[in-house]
Amino acid sequence: xxxxxxxxxxxxxxxxARNLKDTYASExxxxxxxxxxxxxxxxxxxxxxxxxxxxxxxxxxxxICERELKAVFRGQTNQQLLRMFNEKFKKDEAGKxxxxxxVEEAKIKELYD
Length: 113
Fold this sequence. Notes:
Elements: H1 2-10, H2 16-42, H3 47-90, H4 105-112
Helix pairs in contact: 1-2, 1-3, 2-3
């Protein structure tokens, strides 16, 4: 998950939040699916004990992901947004600086959106 977070910020997109949420949910589901047979069959835990163990694990995983996400956002997001601004707004499709007085207002709004 840590690598996914770093990669998602490095390639920031409008779907960032949904991608993070979907990946988190998928990874958690996979973790729980792998752990249930181990806890029940391998360790002989009851259904309630298995549920309690997985609940504590989910809380811990959430806290770890939240800390990592906050750290990555503090350290990388501003740089990535500035890079995107420079690539997509300040410069034209050819990579040259835009001559803003010549750009129509409608085009500026389109670029901004």
